[in-house]
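Below is how a single chain appears once it has passed through the pipeline. First comes the sequence as given, then the structure the pipeline wrote out for it. We keep one example in the README because the format questions we get most often are answered faster by looking than by reading.
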Amino acid sequence: MIIITTHRESDFDALASLVAASLLYPDAKCVLPTSVNPNLKPFLAIHKDFFNLYSPPDIVLEDVTTLVVVDTHSWNRLEGMEPLKDRQDLKIIVWDHHLHGDMKTPHKHVKEAGASVTLLIHEIERQRKLITPIQATLFLMGLYEDTGNLTFASTLAQDAYAAGFLLDRRADLQILSTFLRQAYGKKQKDTLFQMIQEAQRIDIGGFSVSIAKMEIQGRIQNLAMVIEMYREILNVDAAFGIFKDVEKNKCVVIGRSNIDDIDIGLLMKSIGGGGHPGAGSALLKQVNPDTIEEMLVELISGNQQSSVILSDIMSYPVITINEDTTIESAAMLLRDLGYTGMPVVDKNGHIQGVISRRDFKKLRKTKQMQSPVKAFMSRNVVTISYDKSILEVVRLMIKHDIGRIPVIKEEEIVGIITRSDTMAYFYDLLPD
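Resulting structure:
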């Protein structure tokens, strides 16, 4: 079975990309997450029957042989697909305009564009697939929503070309304007007014930035639009809104940028969210807004000197294993300690690699359990110097998709930083 799916809180670009991909993979089932953006719900209420959509609970994952993912390539943004993550026999195909993600596959169509549907439209045109006026209208809605009607800084020439192609296929601008009209009511006006009243402009590395923090009661729709208006009114290079829902004790972080040097998508990914260069968001639970502001400032500035040094948060002493230890002994040690991996050292204590439970999947014969660890360990070890900042650790974890990094001082391992350690820092859980 082939399925096509997209990210939670699906917007028009997600739905448009989902339907567009179904033209390229006609035997696939389109799986739309149950959580969709409020502005998409009225459109779905009228048009849902046109697109033959499934929900994640409708799919028997054991029968899935190919997974097509659109408008994201991050596992944590998918709904109900967790059991597929470790399937070795699963073919994964990605179509996405977000440049950062953790899904690994040779079948990856990831390119910079204003909208994901743009990439699929160009492929549809190349394959000379026929599209109906209803499909063309939906595709244009996805394209317009993500590019701000082709006005956002992230818009490229290929987006404008795709828009022209869809208009030529009789995309209906009247229907588009009806469903894409964003609500700008009293809540949005009051929010924007309060933000402007308390606005501050700061200079970070030569860039003008404004970070607004405020408490909100319940859900306020279209905060992304409010942030874009806020950025334009203040005329800054980048603007961020940190909105704390007091009742649910969570913060919604939204960012907008009109310069290439401040990549909002990468910044949001660093704090657990996502996006693309000009826009992005993240949802953080039980986090102090002041801590989030500090994180954003440090990430933008690229500051390597953090007030928290690695020795404050790293785990030590480090339990290592000798490179000549057998795989069987290593497996028993990992099991007894409850670890997923550990550094491998030579007789002088110098790091040679890392062995993890994932490496055990390389074993094909029982007798290989008596082989030395050095025969199966990962040798491309990513390390970090003890005098670097926590933000540098996070960048390395994102870049290399790893969960632990040995801390080195004068060629000796003095500690290890894990994902749990970094989350303790970012979620303000360090002891006083």
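The first strand starts at residue 2 and ends at 5.

See the next section for the split statistics.
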